[in-house]
UniProtKB/TrEMBL annotation, chain A:
Protein name: Uncharacterized Fe-S oxidoreductase (Contains cysteine-rich region domain)
Any Pfam family: CCG
Any single Gene Ontology cellular-component annotation: plasma membrane
Domain 4Fe-4S ferredoxin-type: 63-95
InterPro entries named among the record's database cross-references: 4Fe4S_Fe-S-bd, 4Fe4S_Fe_S_CS, Cys_rich_dom, HdrC_iron-sulfur_subunit
Keywords per UniProt: 4Fe-4S, Iron, Iron-sulfur, Metal-binding, Oxidoreductase
Organism field: Desulfatibacillum aliphaticivorans
Length: 388, 347, 452
C-alpha cells in the first residue's frame, strides 16, 4: 500500500490524539468508544487507531494480523465523529473505513471478516445460509410478495436468519398488517443491503449489492421502503442515491410512530413495564433520528420510561456495528460494550430494554444473559413491545 | 480618497434640526443643534463627537437627505476623538482582515444572495423554500471577511478603513458577475445604497433589501402560508437607519404571515440600539448606560406583550438574544419567522 | 512470550498487557515534538493490588516503569526514556467518595477530569473541582505528577495545592498514605502532619499516585466570561493586579496570538466572574470595570470587548490544527506576573524566527503570586521541517525562561537539565538522596529529574 493512494493522506496526520473521541456528550466517562471501552489500550481509541493507520501507510509499521484486528475493532458507531473538536471530524470514521478498504485491496483482513464478506458475496448474507431460508421468519404470517404495494418491507439479513431477530421482523410485519398498510416482501429474493460490507471496507461488494438491489427494486416498481434495521435504512437512504437508487426510505420506528399517531394501531397497556431505550448508532448518530422510537414507547399506556445515563448522541454502541455482531472483535469480556450497556440498562431499574435494531437486539440479549440479568430485564424490539 | 458629500447649506436652511434634536442619547435643543452640526460641517470640535453613541439614527432623522451621521464619524476620526478605546479600535480594524486564503470566484448570473460576514448563518437559509433558486455568493465561512461590507467601522470612528477597503470588497462581490444582489444583512444593503453613494464610491450591481425580497417571495408562496398568530415585537437595528424606505416591509411581512405587530415605545423611528457598541465606549458610564438601555428595551418588549422578538441584525441577536430569551420572549430572525410561516422547521 | 510479559498477563489478564508492536507504537509517541521512544511492555492495571504486583515485578527484575495518565503533557514526560513498562493507569478511575459539606472528592488517580466534572454536575451541582486547561481526558494523577493548574487557579493556586490526601505505590510496591487518611479513615486534610512532599511534581519518578482526595469548591449557578483588551503589554500585569485585588474572579487569563488577526499584538484578558444571581454578577461587573479598570477605559488604553459570554471549555487541541498539521507543543513557565511583557515580546520573536504564528498565554495562579506563562508552537506532523522548527523554538524558549530567571513548568528532559544545572546544591543533594532511598533500583520513570 502506498500512502499516495490512500484517500485521506492529507488529513490523517491531523489527529492530535487529544482523546475527546473517547467521551460521550456529557463527559461521563472515557468509555464511549466501544473498542476503547473493551481494551483500554490507546491503540484501540479512535485517535490511537488513526495514528496506527498512518504508521502503517507510511511504512513505520508493518501490517500484522494484530494491526488488522485493531483496525477492524472499530464498529463505526460515530461517537468519535460526534465528539472530535476538529474541522475534519466528519471524516474520522471514513479514515478508518478507508484503511479497511486498503486492507481488503491487499487481501490482508482478519479471517472472520473474510468469512463475512465471502458469505455475503456467495450467498447474499453473512451467515452463509441458503436463500430459501430467508423465508423462515415469515412462516404462518401470510405475507404477500412485493408487487406494486405501497411499501416494500425490507427485512435484512439479521431479521431473516437470526432466530432472535426474526421475532422483531414478525412483530413488525404483524403490526403493518394490523394497521392495513399496503406492503410486500422480497422473501428469498432479498439480498444483503451492503451497509456492513461498506463499513468493513469492501467498496466493490457494496457497489455490486447496491446495483443488484436497485435493479430489483426498480424492476418491481418499489418507491417506498420500510426497513427493519437502521443499517439498511442508512445505506438505502444515504448511499444508494450514489448508485442511482432514489427511494423513500423509512425505518420501522418512524412508520410505527406514525401508525400510532394516526390511531391505526394501538399500544397494549403495560402497567408494570418500566422501559429504557438503547439508541442504535445507524438510526441515531448516523441519521439523527432520536425521537421516533421514543414516540413509540411514549404511546404505551401505563408504562414508565427511564433514559440510560448515556443516550441519544451520547449513547454507547452495543458493539455490533460494522459486522461485529458476526466477527465479534469486542466480545468475551465484562468490558464488552454490550455487557456494559446491559448493566447500564439495569441501573435504570427498567424491566424492558427496548431496541430498534436487530443487531442491538441480538447483541444486548446475549449480554443480558451473560450478565445474569435475564430475570430482571427483557430485551425487546419496539415492535415486539407493541405486539406484547 | 473618497470624500463625503455633505451640504451645510441644507442644515442652514433646515427648520427642524431633527438630526440632533431627536437624538435618544443626547438632550439637545434646536438652537444648540444648529450650532453644533454647523460646527462639525466646518471641521470644528463639538461635544457631539464625544457624546455620540454611534447609533446611526440621525442619518434617518435628517429630513433633507444630508448625512449627519457620516459627518460625525468622519469628524471623530479627523479630530482624533474615536468613541472607543484604542485597543478596541485596533481589534475591530483587525477583525476584518481576511486570513484564510482567497475566495473562489464562481461565475453567477441573475440574482444572488450575499451573506456578507455572516456566512456561518448559511444553515438558516440553505434548504429553505424562501431562498430556493437564489444562489449564494460564498458558502465558505473561512472566506467571509472577503465579503465584509466594513460599515461596522462607523461605530469605531473609522471612515478611513471603510474607504480603504470597500473598493476591494465591491470588486470581489462584482467579480461573481451577478447583477442583482440580495443582502442577508441590511448593513450590507446600507453600505451599497447609502454609504457608497454618499462618498461617491461606485457600485456596479443592484442591491436588494432582504425584507423586500422576503415579502415578494412570500407573495409567491402565499398558498403555503399558515398564519402564525404570534404577538411579535421587532428589534430594529442601527443599520436600518440607512434604508428607512424599506422599513415598511416589516409590517407588510408581519401582516402577510399573520402575526400581530405589537406597538411599543421603541418602535420604528424610535427604535432602541442593542447596545453592542455602547458597552465598550470610553465615555464614563458607558457600560452602565448600555445595561440600562438594554433593560428598558426588553422591559418595553415585555410590556408590549411580545411572544417573539424578531431580529434583523445578527449582531443585535448576539447581543440581545440571550437576555430577550431570559425575559421569556423567543428571539428569532425575520427569515426564520417567515420559514415557520410556510411550515418549515427552524433549528 | 518473555517471562516479564507472562508475569504481566498473570497479573492483569491477557487483554491488558501487551508486548506487541501495534500496542506499543502508540505509547512510543506523545503528542508533541519528541522523538519516539519505545517501551517493551504496556500494562493497564485495574486495581491497586494489580499495580503493586506490577511494580514489585519491575523492582525485582530492575525493569524501568513509566506511569501514564492521559498522556497529554506534550513534553515527552510519559515516554519511556529507558524502555521498560508503560503503566497506563486509566482503568483505575473510580470515584470513591464525595463529602459534600467537607467539600472533597476521593478518586482513583487514573480518572479523567472530564468524568469528575460530569459526575459533580449531575450529583453535586453546587460543587466543582479544578479542571486543568488540558482536554478532559487528562487524569488527576498525571496532572498532580506535573504540578498542573487550571480552573480556579486564581483563587486557589496549583492543582497540587488542592490535594487533601494521597495514596502512593512506592517503587518497592509498598503503599503509603499521606494526610488525615494516614491517621484515620477521613480524607479531609493534608495538615497538620509533617510535610512529606515527595510525590507531587516528580513526574512519577518517586512513586505512583493511586488515590487522591481533591478539594472541591463552591460552584456558582452562573458563570460568565468577561473580556478586556489592552494593546500595550506593559499594562497587563497591572490589569491583572487590579482584578486580583478584588479576589472575585474564578479565573484570570491573558492571551495574545498572531492568528486570528483580531488577537494580533493585542492582549485579551479573560475574567471569569460567577454568581448565584444577576445581582451578584452585576456587582462583580461593576467592581471590575467601573471601579478597578475604569482608569484604563477612561484614558482609552483599555476596553471591554464583551460581557456576559458563556464560559466554554477551551479546546486546546484545536491549536494543533492551525496549520492543518495535527501538532503543537508549548513551553510553560511559572513566573511572576510582572514578567508578562518580556515573555510576550521575546516569545513572539522566537516564533517569528521559526515562521510560527506566535501564541502566548498567561494564567494567574494565586492572588497574582505567580503566573503560568506559555509559548505555543504549532507544527505540521507530516512536515519534518516544521517539527524541527517547533522543537528548536521550544529549546530556545526553555533557555529564555532560564535567562529571565523563570521556572520551567513540566519541563521536558532538555528543560529539566537546564533547571538541574542551576539548582541550589542543597536541594540537589536532597533530591538525589530522596530518589536513592525511595527507588534504590532506579526503576521509576528513569531519566526524569535525574540528578547525576
Amino acid at each position: 500500500m502506498n500512502l499516495m493512494e490512500y484517500k485521506y493522506k492529507d488529513m490523517i496526520h491531523r489527529c492530535f490524539r487529544c482523546g475527546y473521541c473517547k467521551f460521550p456528550t456529557d463527559w461521563s466517562d472515557v468509555t464511549n468508544c466501544p473498542p476503547y471501552a473493551r481494551f483500554r489500550l490507546e491503540s484501540y481509541s479512535a485517535g490511537g487507531r488513526l495514528w496506527l493507520i498512518r504508521a502503517w501507510l507510511n511504512g513505520e509499521l508493518e501490517w500484522s494480523p494484530n494491526l488488522a484486528n485493531i483496525v477492524y475493532s472499530c464498529v463505526g458507531c460515530k461517537n468519535c465523529v460526534e465528539k472530535c473538536p476538529h474541522s475534519f471530524n466528519d471524516d474520522v470514521v471514513n479514515m478508518i473505513i478507508a484503511a479497511k478498504t486498503a486492507m481488503v485491496d491487499e487481501g490482508k483482513i482478519p479471517k472472520a471478516v473474510g468469512e463475512f464478506l465471502t458469505n455475503v458475496q456467495l450467498h447474499g448474507n453473512p451467515y452463509g445460509m441458503a436463500a430459501k431460508r430467508r423465508e423462515d421468519w415469515m412462516e404462518g404470517l401470510n405475507l404477500e410478495p412485493y408487487k406494486n404495494q405501497e411499501y416494500l418491507f425490507y427485512v435484512g439479513c439479521e431479521g431473516s436468519y437470526d432466530t432472535r431477530a426474526q421475532g422483531a421482523a414478525r412483530a413488525t410485519a404483524k403490526l403493518l398488517q394490523k394497521a392495513g398498510v399496503s406492503f410486500g416482501v422480497l422473501g428469498s429474493q432479498e439480498i444483503s443491503d451492503g451497509n456492513e460490507v461498506e463499513m468493513m471496507g469492501e467498496d466493490a461488494l457494496l457497489e455490486d449489492l447496491a446495483k443488484k438491489n436497485i435493479k430489483m427494486f426498480t424492476d418491481l416498481g418499489v418507491k417506498k421502503i420500510i426497513t427493519l434495521s437502521p443499517h439498511s435504512y442508512n445505506v438505502f437512504k444515504n448511499r444508494y442515491p450514489d448508485f442511482g437508487g432514489e427511494f423513500q426510505v423509512y425505518h420501522h420506528s418512524q412508520i410505527l410512530a406514525n401508525l400510532l399517531k394516526k390511531g391505526l394501531i394501538k399500544a397494549p397497556e403495560q402497567a408494570d413495564a418500566r422501559i429504557t431505550f438503547h439508541d442504535p448508532c445507524f438510526l441515531g448518530r448516523w441519521n439523527e433520528e432520536y425521537s421516533a422510537p421514543r414516540k413509540v414507547l411514549a404511546a404505551i399506556p401505563g408504562a414508565t420510561f427511564a433514559e440510560m445515563a448515556r443516550n441519544k448522541k451520547g449513547a454507547l454502541c452495543c458493539g455490533g456495528g460494522a459486522g461485529n455482531f458476526y466477527t465479534d472483535f469486542l466480545g468475551g469480556s465484562e468490558d464488552s460494550p454490550a455487557r456494559i450497556r446491559a448493566r447500564e440498562a439495569d441501573e435504570t431499574k427498567a424491566n424492558i430494554l427496548a431496541v430498534a435494531c436487530p443487531n442491538c437486539l441480538t447483541m444486548l440479549e446475549d449480554a443480558v444473559k451473560t450478565e445474569g440479568l435475564e430475570d430482571k430485564i427483557k430485551v425487546r424490539d419496539i415492535s415486539e413491545i407493541l405486539t406484547a | 480618497m473618497y470624500e463625503l458629500k455633505f451640504d451645510p447649506d441644507l442644515c442652514m436652511a433646515c427648520d427642524t434640526q431633527d438630526c440632533l434634536v431627536k437624538c435618544q442619547h443626547m438632550d439637545i435643543d434646536q438652537e444648540t443643534a444648529r450650532t453644533e452640526i454647523l460646527k462639525l460641517a466646518d471641521g470644528e470640535d463639538s461635544f457631539v463627537l464625544r457624546d455620540c453613541v454611534t447609533c446611526y439614527a440621525c442619518e434617518e432623522y435628517c429630513p433633507n437627505g444630508n448625512h449627519p451621521f457620516y459627518l460625525i464619524v468622519k469628524m471623530q476620526e479627523e479630530l482624533g476623538m474615536l468613541p472607543l478605546p484604542d485597543p478596541l479600535v485596533k481589534s475591530g480594524v483587525q477583525v476584518g482582515i481576511p486570513f484564510r486564503g482567497e475566495p473562489v470566484i464562481d461565475e453567477m448570473e441573475g440574482t444572488v444572495l450575499n451573506m456578507g460576514v455572516f456566512s456561518p448563518l448559511l444553515g438558516r437559509v440553505e434548504g429553505s423554500k424562501l431562498f430556493e433558486g437564489l444562489p449564494v455568493i460564498s458558502h465558505d465561512s473561512r472566506k467571509m471577511f472577503h465579503y465584509f461590507c466594513q460599515l461596522m467601522y462607523l461605530h469605531y470612528g473609522k471612515t478611513s478603513v471603510i474607504n480603504e477597503r470597500l473598493d476591494g470588497i465591491i470588486q470581489t462581490l462584482a467579480s461573481h458577475g451577478a447583477k442583482e444582489i440580495v443582502h442577508f444583512h441590511d448593513e450590507c444593503y446600507g453600505t451599497y445604497t447609502s454609504y457608497a453613494p454618499a462618498f461617491g464610491i461606485e457600485v456596479p450591481f443592484k442591491s436588494i433589501h432582504l425584507f423586500e425580497f422576503l415579502y415578494n417571495r412570500l407573495l409567491e408562496l402565499k398558498d403555503e402560508i399558515r398564519p402564525l398568530g404570534y404577538k411579535v415585537v421587532y428589534q430594529r437595528p442601527c443599520s436600518s437607519r440607512l434604508s428607512s424606505d424599506k422599513h415598511p416591509f416589516v409590517a407588510k411581512i408581519f401582516d402577510l404571515i399573520g402575526v400581530e405587530y405589537m406597538d411599543r415605545e421603541y418602535k420604528d423611528e424610535n427604535a432602541m440600539c442593542c447596545g453592542a457598541t455602547i458597552l465598550g465606549q470610553k465615555k464614563e458610564g458607558s457600560r452602565v448606560y448600555c445595561a440600562e438601555i438594554q433593560k428598558k428595551n426588553i422591559d418595553d418588549m415585555k410590556k408590549a406583550g411580545g411572544q417573539i422578538c424578531v431580529f434583523n441584525c445578527p449582531a443585535c441577536m448576539q447581543t440581545l438574544g440571550m437576555p430577550v430569551s431570559k425575559a421569556g420572549i423567543m428571539p428569532l430572525f425575520m427569515s426564520d419567522l417567515c420559514r415557520l410561516a410556510i411550515g418549515e422547521k427552524v433549528g | 512470550m518473555s517471562s516479564i510479559q507472562q508475569e504481566l498477563v498473570n497479573i492483569v489478564g491477557e487483554d491488558y498487557a501487551s508486548d506487541r508492536r501495534e500496542e506499543l507504537f502508540t505509547y512510543s509517541k506523545d503528542l508533541g515534538t519528541s522523538q519516539p521512544l519505545w517501551p517493551e511492555y504496556v500494562v493497564a492495571p485495574k486495581t491497586t493490588d494489580e499495580l503493586q504486583a506490577v511494580v514489585r515485578l519491575a523492582n525485582e527484575t530492575k525493569t524501568p516503569i513509566v506511569p501514564l495518565g492521559g498522556g497529554l503533557t506534550l513534553a515527552g514526560l510519559a515516554l519511556p526514556q529507558k524502555g521498560g513498562i508503560i503503566i497506563d493507569l486509566k482503568r483505575m478511575d473510580k470515584i470513591l467518595e464525595v463529602n459534600e459539606q467537607g467539600r472533597y472528592i476521593v478518586v482513583e488517580a487514573g480518572i479523567s477530569h472530564g468524568k469528575i466534572t460530569s459526575y459533580l454536575k449531575k450529583n453535586h451541582p453546587n460543587l466543582m473541582h479544578s479542571e486543568p486547561g488540558a482536554p478532559p481526558a487528562a487524569t488527576v494523577g498525571g496532572n498532580l505528577a506535573i504540578h498542573g493548574q487550571g480552573d480556579l487557579a486564581h483563587p486557589y493556586g496549583f492543582n497540587t495545592d488542592m490535594v487533601n490526601g494521597l495514596e502512593v505505590v512506592l517503587p518497592t510496591g509498598d503503599i503509603a498514605r499521606f494526610g488525615s487518611c494516614a491517621v484515620g479513615s477521613g480524607w479531609y486534610t493534608m495538615h497538620p502532619l509533617p510535610d512529606i512532599g515527595l510525590f507531587l511534581g516528580w513526574n512519577g519518578a518517586t512513586g505512583i499516585i493511586t488515590k487522591v482526595s481533591l478539594k472541591l469548591y463552591p460552584c456558582k449557578k452562573f458563570r460568565e466570561n468577561n473580556m478586556f483588551v489592552v494593546e500595550n503589554e506593559e499594562f497587563v500585569p497591572d490589569v491583572l493586579f487590579e482584578i486580583s485585588h478584588l479576589g472575585m474572579a474564578e479565573d484570570l487569563i491573558a492571551t495574545s496570538s498572531e492568528i486570528p488577526p483580531m488577537m494580533n499584538r493585542l492582549h485579551y484578558i479573560s475574567i471569569i466572574n460567577t454568581g448565584d444571581s444577576e445581582e451578584e454578577l452585576e456587582f462583580k461587573r461593576h467592581m471590575t470595570f467601573d471601579v478597578q479598570l475604569a482608569k484604563y477605559i477612561r484614558s482609552g488604553v483599555g476596553g471591554i470587548v464583551s460581557l456576559y459570554d458563556e464560559r466554554t471549555r477551551p479546546q486546546v487541541s484545536k491549536s494543533a490544527d492551525w496549520k492543518k498539521g495535527g501538532g503543537f507543543e508549548y513551553v510553560g513557565a511559572i513566573v511572576p506576573v510582572s514578567f508578562y511583557p518580556e515573555c510576550y515580546r521575546r516569545g513572539s520573536e522566537i516564533s517569528g524566527r521559526h515562521f510560527i504564528p506566535y501564541t502566548v498565554l498567561g494564567r494567574v495562579i494565586g492572588s497574582c503570586h505567580s503566573m503560568m506563562f506559555s509559548w505555543s508552537y504549532a507544527f505540521n506532523r507530516a512536515d519534518d521541517a516544521t517539527v524541527k522548527h517547533a522543537r528548536d523554538a521550544l529549546h530556545e524558549t526553555d533557555e529564555l525562561v532560564m535567562e529571565i530567571n523563570g521556572t520551567i513548568w513540566k519541563p521536558a528532559i532538555f528543560g529539566q537539565k537546564l533547571m538541574l544545572e542551576r539548582m541550589d546544591q542543597g536541594a540537589l543533594r536532597l533530591m538525589k538522596e530522596v530518589k536513592k532511598i525511595l527507588d534504590p533500583n532506579g526503576i521509576m520513570n528513569p531519566g526524569n529529574w535525574e540528578v547525576d
